[in-house]
Amino acid sequence: MADEVKKTRGYRLLNCEQSSRVHFDKAANRLGLDEQMRNWLRIPLREIRVHLPVVRDDGNLCVLEGYRVQHNNARGPFKGGIRYHSEVSMEDIRGLAAWMTWKTALLDLPYGGAKGGVTCDPKQLSLAELERITRKYTQAIGFDIGPHQDIPAPDVNTDENVMAWIMDEYSKIHGYSPAVVTGKPVDLGGLAIRKEATGLGASFIVEKWAKDNGMKMNETTAVIQGFGNVGHNLAFCLQDMGCRVIAVSDTGAGVVNRDGLDIDAVFEHKEKTGSVAGCPGVETVDRENIFGLECDFLIPSALQNAIHGGNYRNVRAKVIFEAANGPTCPVIEPRLIRKGIPVVPDILVNSGGVVVSYFEWVQNLQQFNWDEDKVYNELKKKMIDAYDAVFGKAEEEKCSLRTAAYMIAIAKVAATARTRGIY
Ligand code: NAD
User: Fold this and answer.
1) Distance from C-alpha of 196 to C-alpha of 287, rounded to nearest angstrom
2) Distance of alpha carbon 350 from its chain centroid, rounded?
3) Does ligand 1 come within 6 angstroms of the Cβ of 289?
4) What number does the ligand 1 atom closest to the CA of 96 have?
5) Are 104 and 354 in contact (CB under 8 A)?
6) pLDDT of residue 12
7) Model-level pTM greater than 0.85?
8) Using an 8 Å Cβ cutoff, are 230 and 262 in contact?
9) Is 403's C-beta closer than 6 angstroms to any atom of ligand 1?
């Protein structure tokens, strides 16, 4: 492992690879997973590192680093998003790829897990530069992805445009192939609901938890960190369910209204200005301050390590739902649980995106479109089935929700690997 545990202002942060291994080891120990299977499932099958020469708009050449990590494909083709971010590293992509393996297994999708990324700062790039980077990246990994091999999707700072460019560039080499990516624009075979699917799926989990805990949604409050694809769609869904979303944040700031934000107004302000900061009629605060607000649901929806040794003591929520990948530092999770704050894990909460990606892929392969109601209902069913499985397992095993989710997922992948005869 390249990275040592990072120390920031006196508290420890793990990269995604380290975090995913902590979770894996806990569940594998409980499962009594044999040593050989454990060694095989702990590491990715393949890691691809590429260097992308890209011409900037001013004519200068820059060379960017890109990655694709294919963690496991025992249950089906590799599947996972592509992240563009200035701090993307191979270590993080490794962990994110493993999380996809466990997520697709937990949700019973016929996929394995992968993740990709390019180290770049999209805020500093024009649309034309973003397109050139995406096309170069696709050329570089074009023989390692494919509709039955590895199917990318959007993640942080990538969207349907990026998916369209990947699909187009891949199709130049291999012929028309809409099923090579999911999260595409609708006119290329994407599903309209895919953009909101991760937030929508997370809202089903929140609603179910509230019901199981005797709460009415119209009497609940939520705080959401991150107001991008996942965060803002989740905020809309919760608002529609009657929940008061009292604070949201982005990299710029947090905004708070204890009576409940008007999410449409905050969204409109962000669209206009690029940030939620300064939204009229609400209080603008430091983005970190929202973690200490009293609320029912705290929902980190930005990046990994949002809740760490420096801020977990401030948390005054009844429950944490991880809509982002890896937002709770594994060292801190047991302390939150001891404080009586359960953490509903990412591989359950944010799985709505890959579930709808699966529906998109199936329709692309079959060249047969479902109606929107069917997609919505099938998503809800998948989310609730997985919720019941995780909460049932945690009860049976008297363990955390995360360990329960991992136990279910790891057992499935290991069983398929044994049946196929992976050795
Ligand atoms: P995005 O780029 O659309 O949005 C990220 C948001 O987080 C932005 O609003 C950004 O300003 C904010 N942010 C970043 N750092 C922050 C900080 N320190 N404090 C407050 N806000 C901060 O990305 P996304 O697609 O919404 O993904 C968010 C998370 O959800 C990631 O962890 C991603 O891996 C995970 N996820 C995304 C999908 C999907 O379908 N897009 C699916 C599953 C999981």
Assistant:
1) 23
2) 6
3) no
4) 34
5) yes
6) 80
7) yes
8) no
9) no
